[in-house]
Amino acid sequence: xxxxxxxxxxxxxxxxxxxxxxxxxxxxxxLPSHAYAFAKAKKVNIYFLNTTDAxxxxxxxxxxxxxxxxxxxxxxxxxxxxxxxxxxxxxxxEGDVLLTVSADxxxxxxxxx
Length: 113
Fold this sequence. Notes:
Layout: H1 2-24, H2 34-39, E1 43-50, E2 56-60, E3 63-67, E4 72-78, E5 82-85, E6 97-100, E7 109-112
């Protein structure tokens, strides 16, 4: 019984020390943990221009944005985020994915029609 208790205690100790050792090692920056990798996600600034006479709404990562008629807004979103139509427009329906954010869209202007 003592043998198995010592084994599990050693296993528990190793499980808590290995992640810390991996971050402290030379390769720690090359092999980041998941939390560290998501914290470093690159954000891209995109402009949305409403070219219609009615307000348009979009959602980016569950955050809703409203664009007044003939106005432009700036949205900062992480690479890979989906921009979804929160209402229907002339060329799309509510719930349609308008675009997926990529690094190529940095400072681009997207027209909402």
